[in-house]
Amino acid sequence: MAPEKDDIKAEKAVLEVRGMTCDDCEHHVSKALLAVGARDVYADRSVNAAFFTLPQGIEEETLKQAVKQAGYLPGELKKERGKNLKAKGGKLLSETNNSYDLLVIGSGSAAFAAGIKASDLGAKVALVEEKTIGGTCVNIGCVPSKALLKPAEVYWAAAHHRFPGISTSQGDVDLAMLIFEKDSLVTALRQTKYLDVAKSYDFEIKQGHASFVGEDRVEINGEPVSANKILIATGASPFVPPIPGLDKSGYLTSTTALELKELPDRLIVIGANAIGLELGQFFLHLGSKVTFIDIASRIAPFEEPEISAALGDALLREGAEIITSAQISSCEKSADGLVEVKVTGEVNETCLVADHILVATGRRPNTDSLGLDLSGIEVDQRGAVVVDEQLHTTNPLVWAAGDVTPSPQFVYVAAYEGALAAENALLELSENTASPRKVDFTALPRVIFSSPQVASAGLTQEQAVANGYEVKTSLLPLEAVPRALANRDTTGVVKLVADAKTDRLLGASMVADGASDVIQAAVVAIKVGLTTTELASMFHPYLTMSEGLKLAAQTFEKDVSKLSCCA
User: Fold this and answer.
1) Do domains 5-80 and 445-562 have the same CATH topology?
2) Is 88-238+362-441 assigned to CATH 2.60.40.420?
3) In terms of C-beta density within 10 A (0-12 exposed, 13-18 middle, 19 or more buried), how is residue 381 classed?
4) Where in the sequence numbering do the catalytic residues fall?
5) Is the bond preceding 452 in cis, omega lying within 30 degrees of 0?
6) Which of 286, 425, 437, 529 is most deeply buried (CB count within 10 A of its CB)?
7) Helix, strand, coil: what percent of the chain each, to 5?
8) Does CATH place domain 445-562 in 3.30.390.30?
9) Could you tell me if 19 and 72 are in contact, meaning their C-beta atoms sit under 8 angstroms apart?
10) How does strand 100-105 pair with strand 125-129?
11) CATH, domain range 5-80
């Protein structure tokens, strides 16, 4: 590739930049420098510096002011004409004959994070999508479900508020209008957060089906494409268990449930983890009679038992039915179009009748049609692509990220892994000798957007014990949290798990209004290794739900019922 005319007068430069702490910081610094004329910018927080090509005529002060305005502290600028100052990136394609430095199969959160990172590193990158751009989160997952949960919660509260002295009432439910508004939001975000982003980073999106036809060969709709490195980020889809009669009876998944235009009178939800609980309560709040069924001994089976119990109590008070330790023997569609489900629970067998069955029994990786049997890429028994700590597959040319791997299926995990995998893959194409980054799930948060919300971070008590810790725990009912009392809603609990020897916080869980926001404080505390004593001594604003963390930490040493406000 011949250099541009201006490149002859350009210099390689590195600018010291302080204050970068995350991938977003690196992106903000890179964007700021690009805006004032720098080229091929790569910001690297690990060395507190930004590396770029500096065309002639751009003043040093201009660069520094751009960094300052972005919120970071610039330092010394060094220039070296003609020398390569690559950190993790730089232009990778100047002398390659391949079509792409990185080919990403998929276009969801992991894929786009990879595309952004690869573009920041100066790579030529393409994303391949067979269906709708944006993957699960924006199209059929996080965004549409949360856009529906809130109006349903408001509708429920209109008839079930807890405040004497005011009167509210419910009107009619227009489910078709809710779905229309949800679809409008999805369409807008798909454009602004995906299609527009791809354009701004100048990476290509290729429409079609990608599959391996050899260990180092990929085809898109039968046409070969060349790439130095490949990233699999195809996500996952709803898993439907082999229940006798289910296929003939008809069922909803988390995708099709979000397309209903008429509210079912009765709904059976098979699976009572995050997806089933959220969507089931959505219909419950709008007026459907909902029954939750789970094979586990409790709902939200991966959370602390006290968390499951508190959420179960809340659902039962709202009129839900819950059947746990359940085995479904058959499903059958009756002559009047209803669905009959025979289920054996903890006590006896019963026959449930409903308008619809919602199957929410987890998601399986999308790997069946990728030709992985020809690629030398190992998969596990669920079909997930096996990766190491650096997200490398068993094929030296291929990485994988997000829900297609065995990693926790959260959108923020997918984005984190997509960026990390892209960086590690492109390290091998650059002059950088740094070691590949490893996945670190320390203090990973998880949220169930039920009402009240469930949020957790770090290890549960069971996990901590399994990891060899001697633990101590505290359990705080929401009756002890002033914000909950003021809200007239004390449904919930806060549980902390700590290392009995060091007092270091290992895990936090809570059921509470706003738990999804409060949990971030616990994420930080666990990540930096705070003790429960240190957590209890930190400032927590009075009459906020976050005070529940402080009170739960104080519970290790004190009877908080004997403390005054803010003590």
Assistant:
1) no
2) no
3) exposed
4) 20, 22, 25, 72, 137, 142, 565-566
5) yes
6) 425
7) 35, 25, 40
8) yes
9) yes
10) parallel
11) 3.30.70.100
- Structure confidence by residue, pLDDT tens digits, 383-412: 999 999 999 999 999 999 999 999 999 999
Rounded to whole angstroms, the Cα distance separating 414 from 111 reads: 8
End-to-end CA distance of the chain: 68
| SS3 category, 311 | helix
Q: How many other C-beta atoms can be found within 10 angstroms of the C-beta atom of residue 357?
A: 24
Are 367 and 383 spatial neighbours (Cβ–Cβ below 8 Å)? yes
- Token pair 């569609």 is found at 333
Alpha carbons 366 and 364: distance in angstroms, whole number: 7
Residue with tokens 């080229």: 39
Write out pLDDT tens, residues 331-382: 999 888 899 999 987 767 899 999 999 999 999 999 999 999 999 999 999 9
Location of structure tokens 């997806």: 275
212's tokens? 């391996």
Ramachandran bin of 323, using left for φ above 0, alpha for ψ from -120 to 50, beta for the remaining angles: beta
Q: Which two tokens stand for residue 173?
A: 């439910």
- Give this prediction's pTM: 0.83
Asked if 548 and 478 count as a contact pair (C-beta separation under 8 A), the reply is yes
Cα–Cα distance for residue pair 489/318, rounded to 1 Å: 14
Say if residues 382 and 76 touch (Cβ distance below 8 Å): no
Domains in the chain: boundaries: 5-80, 88-238+362-441, 246-361, 445-562
CB atoms within 10 A of CB 160: 12
